[in-house]
Amino acid sequence: MWLRESEVLVMESLEPERELVDSMIEMLCTNGVRRLEDLQDLLACYLSLNAAEHHRTIVALFRRVVLVWIHLGSQRLLPGQ
């Protein structure tokens, strides 16, 4: 699975939300995410790599990124595709 092949970076940032959004966009584009299951796996990965205190922000940003991504028509999300 492509998530296992991804590199995890620990970093400090003056703009952590922007960095996270950039990371999410990169993962969506680079890994050709097309299935709903892939999105779920990606979100689970971000949640597992970050402290629980950040989960609400991560979910909100992920939702925003995915909604924009779908709106722009970059990918089709079809269960089981």
TrEMBL record:
Domain OVATE stretches: 9-68
Compartments it resides in: Nucleus
Annotated Pfam families: Ovate
A GO CC annotation given for this chain: nucleus
GO biological process: negative regulation of DNA-templated transcription
Keywords: Nucleus, Repressor, Transcription, Transcription regulation
Known role: Transcriptional repressor that regulates multiple aspects of plant growth and development.
Name used for this protein in its record: Transcription repressor
